[in-house]
Specification:
The structure is a homotetramer.
Chain A lengths: L16 H10 L4 H24 L2 H4 L2 H28 L3 H5 L2 H8 L2 H7 L6 H8 L4 H8 L3 H13 L1 H27 L15 H12 L12 H41 L30
Helix pairs in contact in A: 1-2, 1-4, 2-4, 4-7, 11-12, 11-13
Subcellular location (chains A, B, C, D): Membrane
GO molecular function, one term (chains A, B, C, D): voltage-gated potassium channel activity
Main location (chains A, B, C, D): membrane
Chain lengths: ~300, ~300, ~300, ~300
Amino acid sequence: MHIHPKHPQQRPTKPGLRQNLYDIIFEAEESWGRAFDIGLLIAIMGSIAIVAIETLPSIQTNPGTVLWMARIELIFAILFGTEYAMRIYCTRYPWKYIFSFWGVIDLISFLPSLLVGFGSPRQNAFVIVRSMRLLRVFRILKLWRLMSEADVLGATIWRSRGKIVVFLAVVMVAVTISGTLMYHVENRPAADGTPSTSGFTSIPQSMYWAVVTMTTVGYGDIVPHTIAGKCISAALILLGYSLIIVPTGFVSAEFTAARREAAGQASRPPARRVCPACQADEHLQQAIFCHRCGTRL
Amino acid sequence: MHIHPKHPQQRPTKPGLRQNLYDIIFEAEESWGRAFDIGLLIAIMGSIAIVAIETLPSIQTNPGTVLWMARIELIFAILFGTEYAMRIYCTRYPWKYIFSFWGVIDLISFLPSLLVGFGSPRQNAFVIVRSMRLLRVFRILKLWRLMSEADVLGATIWRSRGKIVVFLAVVMVAVTISGTLMYHVENRPAADGTPSTSGFTSIPQSMYWAVVTMTTVGYGDIVPHTIAGKCISAALILLGYSLIIVPTGFVSAEFTAARREAAGQASRPPARRVCPACQADEHLQQAIFCHRCGTRL
Amino acid sequence: MHIHPKHPQQRPTKPGLRQNLYDIIFEAEESWGRAFDIGLLIAIMGSIAIVAIETLPSIQTNPGTVLWMARIELIFAILFGTEYAMRIYCTRYPWKYIFSFWGVIDLISFLPSLLVGFGSPRQNAFVIVRSMRLLRVFRILKLWRLMSEADVLGATIWRSRGKIVVFLAVVMVAVTISGTLMYHVENRPAADGTPSTSGFTSIPQSMYWAVVTMTTVGYGDIVPHTIAGKCISAALILLGYSLIIVPTGFVSAEFTAARREAAGQASRPPARRVCPACQADEHLQQAIFCHRCGTRL
Amino acid sequence: MHIHPKHPQQRPTKPGLRQNLYDIIFEAEESWGRAFDIGLLIAIMGSIAIVAIETLPSIQTNPGTVLWMARIELIFAILFGTEYAMRIYCTRYPWKYIFSFWGVIDLISFLPSLLVGFGSPRQNAFVIVRSMRLLRVFRILKLWRLMSEADVLGATIWRSRGKIVVFLAVVMVAVTISGTLMYHVENRPAADGTPSTSGFTSIPQSMYWAVVTMTTVGYGDIVPHTIAGKCISAALILLGYSLIIVPTGFVSAEFTAARREAAGQASRPPARRVCPACQADEHLQQAIFCHRCGTRL
């Protein structure tokens, strides 16, 4: 069995229990390592599900279920705690791991639950902290090399940061102008003096409406009520729609370009062979004789 | 008339009624087979329409119409039953057909309706079973070779399963984080102590909101009520929109690549030159000598 | 002035008033013809606006405005009637025009309004007939050659009719299955026996919900109320979204291919020149001397 | 330090305070100029935020906060006023600047606020005028050359103005026909004579619904209530969706084409060979003799 460790400086040098444990926990190249990752993935999903289900009103009003939930959560916390201890045990320089990004995430993914489990009062703030264990999903995916796909995407986004800044500026300006315009149009009091009952109560509210509308989400909690407001918002919707298809088209073009480059590199001949007799190039890769003069290549 | 049967092992070997029936029912190459397919397509559509219309409240409160519906349904069931019997009759190995995927689908597309029609009480669960006859539409389309289009799509999806897994993971994480965040922001009690009346009653509910919002469906049954919630959700909408245009762009790029490959294959020389000595093909268009054996072409 | 008539068989042969009138009304090549088209375009828009504004409740409750509207409508009807008479007068074979598609559209674009204007009671059905004058906009655009853009689109759609049929079949099946599923999930009576108050009152209603949801319109008039319904509909939304981006990607690919073909034809060298001395080809288009041997081409 | 002024005719000729000030305020090539731009950007954002926040009901009912807001606004107005004075001071021809587009925008971005600040009653109309200072964001972005991205977009849009006109015409016709159709379908009184309570109260209202629906915004303030209306609107949604993906695909194709052209230009040989005799460039890479004069390269 030959392992290519991802962080060779952390792998124990001497073969034995620690090195085997390291290969299983930190690497994903052999069946035991893969099984560990899948198990961890399921445990993370399960514990996140518990965090979410706990907030359901039908659960919170039932003391029995709350207790059960707390117990399952405690089991997950002990599980993650054991995993944390094992990670410290099998790395060559434990402190380096403890203060690394993933080390901190690993710690806070079980510590609050353990504290709550052993008597500390349940606090709402803990829920957000506990949700951060979700980030560990990415570490496992990273091990599986699936992240190389994400890297391509990240590179594409980074290459087009100039366009993104311009686009966000245009969207912010469009949102602000639309919001200001609709606020004034919808808030004009009616002819008979009764005040407007419009949902466009302020410019920030109208800007929220503009974002919701321009992205075609369209909740419908704030809608124009006056004829003028409806005409203007129909025009704004068409304009906003035109604006918002621009990034879609741009992302398509970037992906198409990335796809074409990849295809181009794959089809390029590795080296061009030239006929020694007539200097013709452009031979097929499998050619044995020159296609122009028949000389053996 | 020359038939290229799709499943030659099932076609009766001796010419006669059974073989003719087989060609009409299982193949779509001649006018009678096409007519049978179109008739079957209409019957499936009609019977599905009956299943759907039956559930309309204005129909269910009218006993006369319910009776009529049941009668039409029975006619369809008898029709499909006859078709099933004919399929068994004209295949060479009937049991092979009966236990095949399409055989089972064919059976359950008429059996529950027949049972209901002949006295068995109408049961809700039957509706789902009866709806499964819809799958038979695909068999007919398959016969018509339209499915080759779907095959291209399926191949594209299969080739990009890595990207899909990463993307679904990112969406799930984004949905969970957005949901947890909005649950906490919207559920904070107001300054005067009155409890929140927000629709974000639990994290699963907030995650449902996040899915509805990020796909720009935007029902509006759950919307943020606090200023902080509106600000955060406007930001999440813009982020979510950026996330959701990624697969659109990716699908576009894949289709563009498939289109280009198809065009490339179409523009290749239709007539391939073959070496008279060694039978090698794939010569360059300007080749004078065979690239494998050096013989003059 | 040289006119290339679009329908030469209808243009009067002898120069004179009729021929000049024909060139102005039926052609768009010179300034008078263009001015006539723009005027007609404005008149059509204006008359359609009148039809629409007439239905506003604030207009309908005010007898004075209704009268004014009717008068303006009558003026438009007389205008279109005059234009119709002029078209009959200046075509070579009037009956051929009268019974042509555009002739019938021209007639019904003013006849009902004239009847209403001269005493016939106002009928709702007339509104739809009157709206058909909108189609005349396309004739004017056709004259202006803008329609060649639309022709490219039409050709693209026609070339991919196979894909469209498959896609519509898949969408119909997805809508039917989603609708049936949600109808059963949402209509299950609660544990305490109270009947469901869900909006999913029937399968057709649920199918309407599925169409509204899968296209990301998301009105919010029908939304899932049960936890199971929300989970399933979140999954259906993600699936439906994946389904609905397929045609977007496909249209992008088709446009990209059309764009590339157009670019390819533009950049292709019209004819390749070969050097008479050394037989080298691949010369620049503006080359005067051979780039390999220096011989004058 | 070498400055390439953007408007050299406005830059003071003699080195000194005025020239330095000009370089800082009007140019963005050195650190001081960049710092000034970033500061101005923050001030514009902040002042726009003040305009928006001022309209919040919770702010408007609190006299203390209103006063504070007015004071901050006054500070911004004085800041922008000082900047305006400095711009006038350091340009070579001040009147040319004052009557230029940006000069007018600069003036109205602080004048109304100054007037309000020094006693003139607060007027609603001023809010729109004050919002126009947002346009100044674009001047700063222009200096930063980010706008070259926007130029590409602008060129793309201009090149496809023919397609845009046809598309807008088709959308307008589709909206009008859908609106008219739905108005008639939804407004038919029920069988028992009770009038319709539909939201489709008039054709303009129905056209507003059609815009909201076809762009997949889908507020849900106006929804079909009758079965016929739901069937027709489901069909219209699918048709409208097909219509609205066309510009998305088109924008994608245009971006892909622009991307490919850019890539094509990038892959061209960077070093161009020039004929020593006739100075002609644009030789083929394998050229041995000049294509224009036949001299050996």
